[in-house]
Amino acid sequence: MRRREFISLFGLVATWPLSAGAQATMPVIGYMSGRAPEESKHLTAAFHDGLRESGFVEGKNVAVEYRWAFGQYDRLSSLAADLVSRHVAVLVAVGGDVSAHAAKQATSTIPIVFGGGSDPVMTGLVASLSRPGGNATGFTLLTNQMEPKRLGILRDLVPKAAVIGVLINPNFPPAVSQLGALEKAAQSIGQRMAVFRASNDAQLDASFVSLVQQHVSALLVAGDPYFDTRRDRIVAFAAQHKLPAVYHFREYAIAGGLISYGPSVTDSYRKAGTYTGQILKGTKPGDLPVVQPTKYEFVINLKTAKALGVNIPSGLISFADEVIE
């Protein structure tokens, strides 16, 4: 063999294992969500912002495997099992409490960064908020506990509402406590409610028909990841039937919903990215406190109010964090 050919061959052999080894040692994040990718683009971007703050960039020094349930919660267990079988370095489970619990049931060793709307201590995800212990930490939006507050806002907006409709997902585990809190709040103010249940598209369409038939005066959409995946459809229905409605996330008001009241979900996803980066660097998830909301956003869409013929009281406008005109 000629010397030049030998050197070229040696270079090829020496370089190839290094490249393969670099790829093999790149940590992989498993990212699973109860929501859908298109309507969650801003949340995924916020997560990557947090990762970047911790020194990790997808495709450069970390890889990400994505899994989406599209609001169908029975898919989450298999999604979690699949990611665990791939030996991901961190399992990120967002898009609702069901996603977090599916991840927790799938592994007791892989670090988990979760995101949900309920108290994670009460639901058994962590031992405490300040010292979670175990293999899981993350954020809670506590949005499922805020339904009575949203009912109060809607009542202030439509004080003479004969019937307020409540759209709720019976397949969402927090639905029981959501509805119980709403019924108690409605009874305390003498407000009649009509409950409409939907966990898939056929039931959602049927609920729309029933809402019209029962002549509800206003609508409260309970916090739920499935409804988030159908946000545009729900907002369009309310607009078509000139139905004042209140929602749990700012994204609904941006999409044309009348009013939203709830925590900043993008801030929480950014923090989830930061936590994921810290864990990749060696921090134990049990040592990272669960992040709780520090800011609640009250958003009013005045353009929608005008289209609906709804007069927003000046007191509510002055209370708003953001007014869309």
Question: Would you give an account of this structure?
Answer:
The chain is elongated. The protein has helices at residues 3-25, 41-53, 76-85, 97-106, 147-157, 175-189, 201-213, 225-229, 231-240, 250-254, 265-280, 302-308, 314-319, and strands at 28-33, 63-68, 90-94, 112-116, 136-140, 164-168, 193-197, 218-221, 245-247, 259-263, 296-301, 322-324. The protein has two domains: 3-142 and 264-294, Response regulator (Rossmann fold), CATH 3.40.50.2300; 144-263 and 297-324, Rossmann fold (3-Layer(aba) Sandwich). The chain is built from 13 helices and twelve strands. The N and C termini lie far apart (77 Å). The chain has a seven-stranded mixed sheet with strand order 7-6-8-9-10-11-12, with helices on both faces. By secondary structure, it is of the alpha/beta class. α2 (41-53) packs across α11, α3 (76-85) crosses α4 and α5 crosses α6. The longest helix is centred in the N-terminal third of the chain and has 23 residues, at 3-25. Helix content is 44%, strand content 18%.
Helix content: 40-55%
CATH topology of the largest domain: Rossmann fold
Looking across the biggest beta sheet, what order are the strands in?
7-6-8-9-10-11-12
**So, the CATH homologous superfamily of the largest domain?**
Response regulator
End-to-end Cα distance:
77 Å
If you average the pLDDT, what whole number results? 92
Give the low-confidence spans. 1-23
Largest sheet: 7 strands, mixed
CATH domain class of the largest domain: Alpha Beta
Put simply, the count of helices is 13
Secondary structure category: alpha/beta
Count of spatially separate domains: 2
Provide the gyration radius in Å: 23 Å
